[in-house]
Design goal:
heterodimer; A: 249 residues; alpha/beta; 13 strands; globular; B: 308 residues; seven-stranded parallel sheet; five-stranded parallel sheet; 16 strands
C-alpha cells in the first residue's frame, strides 16, 4: 500500500509571534520555520507502517513556497521515499490544499493519506476532512492509533469525552493527533541520503487547481492584554484575595 | 438569511457547547434552526426546542446517526443546506470533525472557531494559538462556521419551538463505530465549568491528582491537565487544556505545577481569574496569572483544601 503524507512549513511552535503594526498580518521575516508538529507525527506514522511492512512507499507533499523544499527534505530524512512540492507563494487555505491533494491522490492512488490534524499557524483543522469529502472517502480525524487490517483501518480518535474507535473502508484519510506517536529525529546519514531522494516541483496550475483564497483577511490584531497580576505570599492570602477581591469563590 | 446549527448531543440532552453556539447564531439575524441528528434523540430535540432564538428544531432519527459519524452526518447537512445562508456548529470534536466535510462538499471555505460575529459575512477567529486575532470576510454563498463557545453566553431556555421530524439522508457507508471509552465523572464538564483546577508535569503522578480532586470537590470545579500530564499518562486525553485540546474560559482557572507553555495558555488565557501555583518563580505561567503563588504544590494543595 502506498501512503501519501502532506506536510506544511509553519512558524516554529516555540516562536513568540508578533502582529505587524499595520495589522496586515503576523511578522514572519527573520523568524524560524519548521515542519508543522502534527505533520511530523503523520510522517512518523507512515514510516512506522512502512517499517512494519504494511506500506510499500511513502510519498510526501507540500503546498507552499520554494523554501518548503527544506520541509520535504526533513520528511525524506525521516524515511519518506519521494517528495512533491506544489509550489505557490499564495497563502493557501485548506480548501485549495485539499483540491491540490485530491489531484495528486488521483495520480498516485495511495491506500492511505495521513495528514496532521491542524496547522499551528492558521489553526484551521479542516484539510484532512475536506480532502476526504472531495475524494468520497472515510475520515479518521484526531487519531491516537491507526491500525490497518485488510481492506479497512481501525482508527482510535481522541474526542471530547475520551476515546472512540471507528473502522473506515480503505482507502481513507487519517489526521494525526498529538499522541499518535513520538516522531524520530532524522539521523545525519539519513539527512545525507535524503538529498538524493527524488523531489519533484510542480505548480497548482499544472494540476488544474485554482488556489486563490476564498476568505479575505480584513485585519490581524493582537488579542486583549491581561492586566499584570501579583504574587501572593501564602495560601491564606490567596484564598482571601479570591474571596474578597476577585470574588470568584 | 437563515442559519442551520448542527447540535452536539448524546441523544439524551444537548452538550452545553451547542447552547452557546445558538447565541452566536442569533447575532447573525434571521431564522435559526437546530438540527438534531441521532438515534432515539427526542429528548435532545425537546431541549433544543426550549432555547431562546431557535425558530425550529429538525430531528433526524436514525441508527446511522447514533455516534455522530462524519460521513453520514455531513451528507445529511449537505442535503439540507440549500436555503440556508449559514451552517454552524460548536467547535466540539463533533463540529470540528463534521463541518469541514460539509464545507468541501458545498465547495465553500470554512471559518473555524469564531470568537466574534462582526457582520453576517465577517468574523473574528484566533490564529497562532490565540496570539493573534484575524478578522476574515467570506463572499461564499453559504458560510460554514464552527463557534468557539467560550466566547458566547449560553442561550436561555425560554423558548418553545416546533420539532419537525425529517428523513435520514443516504448513508455513504464509509465508516462504522466500533467502541468508545468515555470518562465518567460527577464533576462539571471541563469546557462549561465555572471553576477549573488543572495539573501539569509538576503533579508527578496520576495518583497525586487526588490532591486536585479534593479541592475540585470543595469548589464544585472541573479538573483539567496540561499536555505534559496527559502524555505522561497521569490523566486521560480528555482532560487536556490547550491549543489543540479543550478551550476553557471559566471564572477561575487554577494552574498547578504547569509551566505555562504557549500552547497551554492558548487553551485558558481567556479565563476571568487565573491563579498559578508553581515552585519555579520564572515559570511563564506567572506572566498571565492574576495571583501567583510560588510554592511547593505538595504543601500548598493540602493547605488550600483546608482553607476552603
Amino acid at each position: 500500500m502506498k501512503i501519501l503524507c502532506a506536510v506544511k512549513r509553519v512558524v516554529d511552535y516555540n516562536v513568540k509571534i508578533r502582529v505587524k503594526t499595520d495589522q496586515s498580518g503576523v511578522e514572519t521575516s527573520n523568524v524560524k520555520f519548521s515542519m508543522n508538529p502534527f505533520d511530523e507525527i503523520a510522517v512518523e506514522e507512515a514510516v512506522r507502517l512502512k517499517e512494519a511492512g504494511t506500506a510499500t512507499e511513502i510519498v510526501v507533499v507540500s503546498v507552499g513556497p520554494a523554501q518548503a523544499q527544506e520541509t520535504l527534505r526533513t520528511a525524506l530524512a525521516m524515511g519518506a521515499d519521494r517528495a512533491i512540492l506544489v509550489q505557490t507563494d499564495v497563502t493557501t487555505e485548506p480548501l485549495a490544499v485539499a483540491k491540490v491533494l485530491k489531484a495528486l491522490v488521483e495520480k498516485e492512488a495511495p491506500g492511505l493519506v495521513i495528514l496532521g490534524k491542524q496547522a499551528i499557524d492558521d489553526d484551521c483543522n479542516q484539510t484532512g476532512q475536506m480532502l476526504a469529502a472531495l475524494l468520497g472517502w472515510g475520515q479518521g480525524t484526531f487519531a491516537s492509533k491507526v491500525a490497518p487490517a485488510g481492506d479497512a483501518v481501525a482508527v482510535t480518535r481522541e474526542i471530547d469525552g475520551g476515546l472512540e474507535v471507528v473502522s473506515l473502508k480503505l482507502p481513507a484519510v487519517v489526521t494525526a493527533d498529538l499522541r499518535l506517536n513520538e516522531p524520530r529525529y532524522a539521523s545525519l546519514p539519513n539527512i545525507m541520503k535524503a538529498k538524493k531522494k527524488p523531489l519533484e516541483t510542480v505548480t497548482p496550475d499544472s494540476l488544474g487547481v485554482d488556489v486563490t483564497p476564498r476568505l479575505k483577511t480584513v485585519k490581524v490584531a493582537e488579542p486583549a492584554k491581561r492586566q499584570a497580576g501579583i504574587k501572593v505570599p501564602d495560601v491564606a492570602t490567596l484564598v482571601d484575595k479570591l474571596k474578597t477581591e476577585a470574588r470568584v469563590i | 438569511m437563515s442559519i442551520l446549527i448542527l447540535a452536539d448531543h448524546d441523544n439524551a440532552s444537548l452538550k452545553p457547547a451547542t447552547v452557546h453556539a445558538v447565541t452566536a447564531a442569533t447575532k447573525l439575524g434571521g431564522d435559526v434552526h437546530l438540527l438534531v441528528a441521532g438515534s432515539n434523540a427526542s429528548p435532545a430535540a425537546e431541549q433544543a426546542a426550549t432555547l431562546a432564538g431557535v425558530a425550529k428544531v429538525l430531528l433526524a432519527d436514525d441508527a446511522a446517526y447514533e455516534h455522530a459519524l462524519a460521513e453520514p452526518v455531513a451528507a445529511l447537512l449537505v442535503s439540507l443546506a440549500a436555503g440556508y445562508s449559514h451552517v454552524l456548529a460548536a467547535a466540539t470534536s463533533v463540529g470540528k470533525n463534521v463541518l469541514p466535510r460539509v464545507a468541501a462538499l458545498l465547495d465553500v471555505a470554512m471559518i473555524s472557531e469564531i470568537t466574534a460575529v462582526v457582520a453576517a459575512d465577517s468574523f473574528e477567529r484566533p490564529i497562532y494559538a490565540g496570539n493573534a486575532i484575524a478578522t476574515v470576510q467570506s463572499a461564499d454563498p453559504v458560510k460554514v462556521i464552527t463557534v468557539r463557545t467560550t466566547a458566547f453566553e449560553a442561550a436561555p431556555a425560554t423558548g418553545s419551538a416546533p420539532v419537525e421530524s425529517i428523513a435520514a439522508a443516504a448513508d455513504p457507508a464509509l465508516s462504522g463505530f466500533v467502541s468508545a471509552e468515555l470518562s465518567k465523572s460527577e464533576r462539571p464538564e471541563l469546557t462549561s465549568a465555572r471553576i477549573v483546577i488543572s495539573g501539569g508535569r509538576g503533579m508527578q503522578s496520576g495518583d497525586n491528582f487526588h490532591l486536585l480532586e479534593a479541592i475540585a470537590d470543595k469548589l464544585g470545579a472541573a479538573v483539567g491537565a496540561s499536555r505534559a500530564a496527559v502524555d505522561a499518562g497521569f490523566v486521560p486525553n480528555d482532560y487536556q487544556v490547550g491549543q489543540t485540546g479543550k478551550i476553557v474560559a471559566p471564572d477561575l482557572y487554577v494552574a498547578v505545577g504547569i509551566s505555562g507553555a504557549i500552547q497551554h495558555l492558548a487553551g485558558m488565557k481567556d479565563s476571568k481569574v487565573i491563579v498559578a501555583i508553581n515552585k519555579d518563580e520564572e515559570a511563564p505561567i506567572f506572566q498571565v496569572a492574576d495571583y501567583g503563588l510560588v510554592a511547593d504544590l505538595f504543601k500548598a494543595l493540602p493547605e488550600l483544601q483546608q482553607a476552603l
